[in-house]
Automatic annotation (TrEMBL):
UniProt key word DNA-binding: yes
Pfam families assigned: HTH_1, LysR_substrate
UniProt keyword list: DNA-binding, Transcription, Transcription regulation
Protein name: LysR family transcriptional regulator
PROSITE patterns, per the entry: HTH_LYSR (PS50931)
The keyword Amino-acid biosynthesis appears for this protein: no
Highest taxon of the lineage: Bacteria
Residue ranges annotated for the HTH lysR-type domain, each copy included: 19-76
Family note: Belongs to the LysR transcriptional regulatory family.
Length: 315
């Protein structure tokens, strides 16, 4: 004897509705325990609530899944088939949650950073040290390249966060200013510019061959943009070198003038190895920015590193 009448049975003509996961869990428990009441207890819900949930599941699928008798609850043939599918769905969900948990744990224990050379050499060590003081267990990996390639690494998933110094991005990305920097024209103390009393003009700077970073570097982009805005041609390379340290060494050796980050040459100017030269009519300031994939929310250690960088810039 069952307690369901023909009018209570689901109609096969109604459109199917996607069952909710808790209803599938209830069905599996009914199959395992042989009792709707015990299944309700296991889920910590009332038996009337469990009965309504099971009825909703049956109506949504257009099938009778359980025969409820005085002796307990027994799956129909259709119920047995649906329960098999439900077990697979719930197992897949468990795998999904386990995998997501592992990914979240990795995100919280590992940070992959890509940064331009100037930022990597002169700012990131302090930022990383501060972050590590808060998270001593955190592993941080750093890839150093020029500003043009940083967004590529971030977008490809090879870095969680990137830092660039150039005025333009090679692709659409989310970005946030973390600090400000200024480029400085520098020469060795024996260069004629070291004895100038009046500032260089933008035109003089653009027409003089310089020791430069390679195309694609943030320093080169900033210089070319500043000269363009001043109505001049791009910088003329005397020598192109792939790192700030190499350019700085070439200028100290007397190869020729250059334009470098103040961060890189401040100590050399103070100690007399290099001489800074004023320039009129050219804005050589630039923003240093964090970048990450567009539309993605910045979370975890990556968000914390950006916060550290912004706070250090105001100290």
């Amino acid at each position: 004897m069952t307690d369901s009448s023909a009018s209570d049975r689901p109609s096969a003509h109604l459109p199917l509705r996607t069952p909710d996961l808790e209803s599938l869990r209830l069905l599996v428990l009914v199959a395992d325990l042989g009792s709707l009441g015990r299944a309700a207890e296991r889920l910590r819900i009332s038996q009337p609530s469990a009965s309504r949930r099971l009825s909703t599941l049956e109506r949504g699928l257009g099938l009778v899944l359980v025969d409820r008798t005085r002796r307990g609850s027994r799956l129909t043939l259709a119920g047995q088939v649906v329960t098999g599918h439900a077990r697979s769905v719930l197992a897949e969900l468990d795998d999904l949650l386990t995998g997501a948990g592992k990914l979240r744990d990795r995100r919280e224990s590992e940070l992959r950073v890509a940064a331009s050379l100037t930022i990597a050499e002169y700012l990131l060590p302090t930022w990383i040290s501060e972050l590590r003081s808060r998270r001593p267990e955190l592993y941080i990996g750093l890839q150093v390249t020029n500003s043009e390639h940083v967004p590529e690494l971030v977008e490809a998933g090879e870095a969680d966060i990137g830092f660039i110094e150039g005025p333009r991005l090679s692709r659409v990305m989310s970005t946030r200013q973390v600090a400000e920097d200024r480029l400085v024209v520098v020469v060795d103390p024996g260069h004629p510019w070291a004895r100038r009393r009046e500032p260089l003009s933008a035109r003089e700077l653009s027409r003089t061959p310089l020791v430069l970073r390679e195309s694609g570097s943030g320093t080169r982009q900033t210089l070319d943009r500043a000269l363009h805005l001043a109505g001049c041609d791009r910088a003329r390379p005397l020598v192109e070198l792939g790192s700030t340290a190499a350019v700085r060494g070439a200028v100290i050796a007397g190869t020729g003038p250059s334009v470098l980050s103040e961060l890189a040459v401040r100590g050399d100017i103070v100690e007399g190895r290099l001489t800074g030269v004023d320039v009129a009519g050219v804005d050589l300031t630039r923003d240093l920015r964090a970048v990450w994939p567009s539309g993605r929310r910045l979370v975890g250690p990556a968000a914390e590193l950006v916060t550290v960088a912004r706070r250090e810039a105001t100290v």
